[in-house]
Design brief:
The structure is a homodimer.
Chain A (H helix, E strand, L loop, with lengths): L4 H17 L5 H6 L7 H13 L3 E2 L8 E2 L1 H11 L7 H11 L6 H16 L2 E5 L8 E8 L4 E8 L4 E7 L6 H15 L9 H9 L4 H20 L3 E4 L2 H4 L6 H11 L2 H11 L3 E3 L11 E10 L2 E11 L4 H24 L2
Antiparallel strand pairs in A: 1-2, 3-7, 3-10, 4-5, 5-6, 8-9, 9-10
Helix pairs in contact in A: 1-3, 1-4, 6-13, 8-9
Chain A binds a DNA duplex through helix 3.
Chain lengths: ~350, ~350
DNA sequence: GGTTAGCACTCTTTCTGTTAGAGTGCTAAC
DNA sequence: GTTAGCACTCTAACAGAAAGAGTGCTAACC
């Protein structure tokens, strides 16, 4: 059967009424909120058709209609457009993000808080992955007589710190040596090529100086591991508790899934910028959810993702507008930061 | 009425059976799990007395007994002792905390994960507050042509970083000047005395160099604010969802409370090392909860708190043993770190 | 052929009444 | 002081009845 203009109109109205009410939408209320001059019986026939096409579901015989996963999909793909963020909200967002514009990790933290605050859903953000980044420098800062902080900096502007302890007294001279050795060897090297094996050969090449540097090397290894990976930050899981659409059990499953950052990261990576509805993700825990994902870029190259997770019933026009603006802002700030180098 | 030894025994057994079962305890099951050779009728009389004394509650006439808040209090104060942590668990804890022993913030993160993992409740930790600390140094690290990271270090071993941006090109020489000026003025100064007003006079004293340093000063101010405060980290709120004792409403209230870190911090500070049961905290949101708090020290001086929050029904002997060991470990590690200076 | 009014039908929700079971409190005997 | 026995009370679970909502179908209409 074909999706006539009137069917589209009715489907869109059903979805939108369902978004605001959360209740199955009946033919009568739909009629009242629709600017078509037809009776509820006609609407009823159309809704029955839409049900037959798999776009609307009926919880039970005497209930109204609810969009099915395919119904949501059609709505997302062809019946709505993202709602631009108002000027006032843009100002608010900018003022919140600007102070941490020069620190990617803190910036993504800010985005996370922003998204949870403005959507009352769960926000997921990933920091730029060092996969395509190189070391832009290594710094050492003495923090006490025998401890120092190693700071690994990447071309993406991320910084990864580790405090390490030596069993001899440190001095500016010693740290200068550390600095020279580490920067000579590492600056410009792709982060993904700082492997344990590489560090071992690096250490071996140092001769007996290696003994002095072993704890610094360990710190470097950990910092490099952190830089390679991507911090997955999940914020505002609490908000999902208050979504009536989740059962105790589905919530539990969902929370357990969100506790496995690698899997969440992999999903965001392979999904790209789009909305994953329920089973589309292939993840059982996400069966009843909607997951809106936007990727941000650095110099036009994909660098990470920000996302909002909630029940399938969400205000996507608004959500996608917000997500899009946030991703653009992050892309702009991080690209500027990279261009500073 | 007096709390005879037999009454104590019965109260303790009631509490302990309730801890494991979560169900009201009847006279019959209690009798079976008690090594007293008396009949259920006798136990019934005693339980009735304990009810009259306000130590046991009865959800309804035909239900067993449940410890009241006062009952829990008596149990905690005089009927139980914390359970020492097993050697195996001690090893596990140590191995988890040791790698971050030289970074207080990461250490407390580790404790937080530890407590949620081992108790399946919510953990609350506070990082050492800079209230009694002084600046042990300020460092600058260039991170790109026009950005640098300021690192504020305190005598407690905490580190606070801020990346700032200048509208002129930085150089090692410029940063050396920054380093000298900031360290001359700040090293040894109590963190709490780095006020906005002080920074203003500091800036004024610099003459026109002030223009060059304004963004560094702003970064310092933010870092100092962070150092003064205490990061309150709440972890594993999710776990509370699966405690049947909480209603939707009480959970909501609880979550909202946990979203206000200053209040949580103030409560932990004034409570000291002990268990707060329900209304004892004076916080309505905590009415149905138990909150076990332990303070850790640096050189014998109170520095912060770690705590576990859950329903009133918790396995306190185990919990208190764990909390005590964790607090001792943190105290030891942080004191060692401070002694390094 | 598309549209509409009317109505029977179905299913959920809510309320009420009933029953089985659990645990108590009381009494009288030990 | 302790115990056995028993009546009492309250909950949880189930079943049936009534109310309400929304549909699907049919027959008439434009």
């Amino acid at each position: 059967m074909e999706l006539t203009p009137r069917k589209k109109k009715i489907l869109a109205a059903t979805v939108e009424l369902y978004i605001v009410s959360g209740e199955p939408v009946g033919s009568k209320v739909l009629c009242e909120n629709l600017d078509i001059r037809v009776s509820s019986a006609t609407v009823r026939n159309e809704m029955s058709d839409l049900g037959g096409m798999g776009l609307l579901n009926q919880p039970h015989t005497s209930a109204g209609r609810v969009p099915s996963e395919r119904g949501w999909r059609v709505y997302l793909d062809s019946l709505m457009t993202p709602e631009p963020v108002s000027a006032q909200e843009r100002r608010f967002i900018d003022s919140l993000l600007l102070p941490s514009a020069y620190d990617p990790q803190k910036l993504l933290d800010g985005v996370s808080r922003l998204l949870t605050g403005m959507t009352h859903m769960t926000a997921i953000t990933t920091t730029p992955s060092g996969n395509n980044a190189a070391v832009s420098g290594v710094q050492f800062v003495q923090t006490s007589r025998r401890t120092a902080m190693l700071i690994l900096m990447t071309t993406l502007g991320t910084m990864h710190t580790r405090v390490f302890h030596c069993d001899f007294d440190l001095s500016p001279d010693v740290l200068r040596v550390f600095f020279r050795v580490f920067n000579d060897q590492l600056t410009g090297r792709p982060v993904r090529r700082i492997t344990p094996a590489y560090l071992q050969t690096l250490g071996a090449g140092m001769g007996e100086a290696m003994l002095l540097m072993s704890s610094a090397l360990r710190a470097l290894q950990e910092a490099a591991r952190e830089a390679m990976g991507s911090d997955v930050r999940v914020d505002g899981q609490m908000n999902l508790l208050f979504c009536s659409e989740f059962t105790q059990q589905s919530l539990r499953r969902l929370m357990r899934y969100l506790d496995r950052p690698q899997e969440v990261y992999a999903l965001l990576q392979r999904a790209g910028t789009r909305v994953l509805l329920g089973s589309e993700s292939g993840v059982p825990a996400l069966r009843d959810t909607g997951l809106a994902i936007a990727h941000y870029t650095v110099r036009g190259r994909d660098a990470g993702a920000i996302a909002v997770l909630g029940p399938m019933r969400m205000n996507y026009p608004r959500l996608l507008g917000l997500l899009d603006y946030a991703a653009r802002s992050v892309s702009r700030m991080l690209t500027e930061l990279m261009d500073l180098q």
